Amino acid sequence: MKFKIVDVIFVLVFLSISLLIIFRPIQNSDRRLTLLADNIEITLPTNDKVYNFRLDFYDIYGTKHNINKQMLLEISDSNARMLESSCQDKICVKTLWAKSCGDIIVCMPNQLALLINCKIGDE
Amino acid sequence: MSHIKLPVLIGLLTSLSVVLGVLENFIPLPLPAIRLGLANLPIMIILFFAPVRYAVLLMLLKSILVPIFSGNFIFKISLGFPSTVMAFIGMVIVFKLLKSRTTAISIGVTAAFFHMLTQLVVADFLYIHGIMTTNIVGILLLIATVTGVLTGVFTNVLVNNKVITSLFDVQR
Asked: Taking the C-alpha atoms of A39, A43, A48 and A50 in order, what is their torsion angle to the nearest 10 degrees?
């Protein structure tokens, strides 16, 4: 197997881009649980609860929402995980807990994501 | 090269690409949403041995047929088609510009990286706005780089294999 120098450069460039994105500076202040559903951004309270998205629920401002999706989301110690989902691949359920800033649980078929949202860099 | 033989090989490699694309859904990997990119192997092989137009044909057929056979058609083609096209453009540019200076590893890693990047951009645009700002982007791009190196190594072995080269009547 022959490797050429250009191969090594290509791999190093792509690895560096990935690592730069992973280790970009993120402040841990203003930690929020943001639910992105059908292009609507909803900030969820961080107290322990299991959300059934077939039913009504309230955001941190007390506004009532109903996104009507067959999914169960658990929030515990300000961390979140998807307990159940109606999607085919169950990728969101297999993702397990979202704990750190920038962590995300995505369910593409249901067009839903749960993001731990923090201030990034100097924003 | 015979004009009859090449279309037959394109057909065979297309079917191989589709079968690999469907089968790799069943290969368990430690992280969700990750695939090895085995369906890209036949495209890279054809790129080495045949004119680019045949590779374009294979790429288009693969990107349409794999979502048909693996289910959830609209969702998978909306993500898969643009990313396969972008990955292919990246592969062709690297292959044409740096043909003598690279091996299949550069081509494989470029394809995997652009495939994943385009998927994330399309997902951000169509499905989950804001996904591009999350940690998952870096992790998925890192894994794509690793799987790209793997497919590049596999392709390198295959394009130097005597049986494969004899199929295309290429003296290497």
From this structure: -20
**Preferred mutation among A18, A36, A99 to probe B, highest tally of B CBs within 10 A:** A18
Any B CB within 8 A of A12 CB: no
Confidence check: pLDDT of B115 > 80:
yes
Q: Which residues of B18-35 are buried (b: 16+ CB within 10 A; e: fewer)?
A: bbbbbebeeeeeeeebbb
Shortest Cα–Cα distance, B5 to chain A (Å)? 29
Q: Does residue B33 belong to the interface with chain A, where contact is any CB pair within 8 Å?
A: yes
Pseudo-torsion of CA A104, A109, B29, A96, nearest 10°? 40
pLDDT for the residue A87 = 85
Q: Do A21 and B137 touch (CB under 8 A)?
A: yes
Q: How many Cα atoms sit within 13 Å of A30 on the Cβ side?
A: 9
pLDDT band at B170 (very low <50, low <70, confident <90, very high): low
Using CA atoms, how far apart are residues B23 and B108, in angstroms rounded to an integer? 19
pLDDT (tens digit, 9 = 90+) per residue, A68-83? 889 999 999 888 999 9
